[in-house]
Specification:
The chain contains 3 helices and 5 strands, in the order αβββααββ. With about 120 residues, it is an alpha+beta fold.
Amino acid sequence: MNTRQAKGAAGEQLAADYLQRQGLKLIERNFRVRGGEIDLICRDGASTVFVEVRRRSRSDYGGAAASITAAKRARLILAARHWLLRHGERPCRFDCVLIEGAEGAEKIEWLRDAFSAD
């Protein structure tokens, strides 16, 4: 694992821990299909929550939120549709966890229902 991958994995772990403290149940990590990937899949009551984690140490170029482009959202939606076909349709939403700042001094922002599949 290279440095970038290690930082990404650490960010996903930070996000998973945060969401679990908020009451969500982690059910899968790094679900991949051709054309898309979902960082975390959680359960929030009866809903499935597809979570994109973005980590940025600096806010240049708009920070973590700005890096979730329309193309990225389309890849997330594609992967979510595949997951739902395999595991059964149920209410779902797309959340984002944004992590900004230097390691050890991160600020975490959870955007519930950040975008829709429509």
